[in-house]
Amino acid sequence: MSLPHAILTALLEKPSSGLELTRRFDRSIGYFWSATHQQIYRELGKLEAEGQIRALASEQPARGQKKQYEVLPTGRAELARWTASSQDPKPLRDTMLLRLRAAAVVGTDGIETDLRRHLVLHQRQLAEYEEIEKRDFPPGRDSPQDRLQHLVLRAGIDLETFWTQWLTHAIEEFAELS
Amino acid sequence: MSLPHAILTALLEKPSSGLELTRRFDRSIGYFWSATHQQIYRELGKLEAEGQIRALASEQPARGQKKQYEVLPTGRAELARWTASSQDPKPLRDTMLLRLRAAAVVGTDGIETDLRRHLVLHQRQLAEYEEIEKRDFPPGRDSPQDRLQHLVLRAGIDLETFWTQWLTHAIEEFAELS
DNA sequence: ACGACCATGTAAACAGTTACATGATTTA
DNA sequence: TAAATCATGTAACTGTTTACATGGTCGT
């Protein structure tokens, strides 16, 4: 039940059409809650039917026409309720860790290549986050909004840092094993 | 497509019945790939139909009777293939980060309580992992199997360490904001 | 023999992914 | 005017979660 709330947040930050939302999910929001355009259109339809958002006037809803959506008071209230509600952390689900555990039983052939590939991907993501930090959070600016958003970005940076370190360590272990 | 492989791994480590598997998923495997008993029974049925596992003889398959499953050569081969195959890391999906981003727009009321609650849960999980490390990986033992499994446990420990640190930092920020 | 729990399962709802369809606008 | 791509959508499939059902075993 998080996709509608991700969309409400994005629309409150800035009213958008379906495609604009899709683009923004590819960039910022998607860094911790990804969604495809199909999911987004479906959810926009539901949210509109429920009266949480509405299409801005002046646009005819023909196919291939942009529709801009904005959040209604009901939607904002629902988002506030959800944000403040108590929710349990989801247990971790990670395929690479599962594969390593499997490798302990069926052998490590072939997995080292993918560890190296993942390392490169995580290093790339880390570099991207650090670029964003330099660009959007220069020292000095610290409105409450800035600090909250910076906190979220820090989580992304620290997570990618963890993965690069762990993968580096894992690859070293493999070098010693063989 | 990871649940069947998680089950194959668990069954290779030790042939088990559905309920035993469920218990083991609650403990070790579930730390990075959780599953409910419904998922497990359904998947066991599929894997048996595909000839990747079989019920050990000497058990009549009546309702309420334990059925022990073991992995067949086909299943082991499939697991080895999957383990070695190239797979992209799944993008992060984290509700707490999403909620913080929403809080930047609709206000932070109520979320701090849940940050503190999550901190306690992550500290508890971290303590559990460190207990397991002390018990199962004393210094000295280092067969290839041990090293791989220890590597996986290290990932769990480092991830929980990250969360406790990040949450602590987040709570400090909130203290300064208000 | 009754209640608690063990063990296996079914059904339905919900969420996410992949593949495809269709009209509108831009550009060569 | 044809091709590319923009923008919105549908359909089918896969995977996950939640709620419920059913028979067996064990302790009192």
TrEMBL record, chains A, B:
Residues 7-80 form the Transcription regulator PadR N-terminal domain. It comes from the Bacteria. Pfam families: PadR, Vir_act_alpha_C. SUPFAM superfamilies: Winged helix' DNA-binding domain. Residues 92-173 form the Transcription regulator PadR C-terminal domain. InterPro entries: Tscrpt_reg_PadR_C, Tscrpt_reg_PadR_N, WH-like_DNA-bd_sf, WH_DNA-bd_sf. This is PadR family transcriptional regulator. It comes from Streptomyces prunicolor.
